[in-house]
Task: structure prediction
Amino acid sequence: MEKGFTITYEYGDNLYVNPTNRCNFNCEFCLRHNQGSGGSIYTHNLWLKREPTKEEILASIESHDLSKYKQLVFVGFGEPSYRIEDICWVIDQMKAKGEKIYTRMDTNGTGSLLHGRDICPEFAGRFDMVSISLNTDTAEKYDALCHPVQEGAYEAMKAFAKEIQKYVPTVMMTVVDTIPKEEIENCRKICEDEIGAVYRVREYIED
Ligand code: SF4
Result:
């Protein structure tokens, strides 16, 4: 694998795609801060010397035997929705060839905010699942934790989580298990009662 150009990587049962290092957040907990390990995650270095083209992303995915994996997950070291158009192109190419792998995007949920348009319809027929980081239970805590570039990111993320359910069969919202119990329960109510998504408390992975 070319140094500084890890486009796809295996983790668990899935194949992950690293389409960009751009992000409109600067989360306190972001694995990208772990410089001690050279910016590694799951033993892969995901800092890209440049963004891969859509053709390079497709070629990297197709270099794997996809029947080995449960899911193809677009995430990486940055916010994948920056590349939504190219990702859609990649998935369309794969589907045109009859590929049926389960597709997922892990996102901070501000794709529509950062693009200045509703990107939700673009997920239709392309993604089986979207997982959105809910992180916390108030906009104030969210801003302090994630430092979003745009104002109103928390409300925009929640609106995205509601809207995307029209287009994607499974929409999940996640928090990590290191936040206080009360906050975990508040987030459960926001996810299940207010938004109607599937709730998951995930284990915090340090690096
Ligand atoms: S949204 Fe993800 S990639 Fe961006 S700063 Fe937060 S944890 Fe890191």
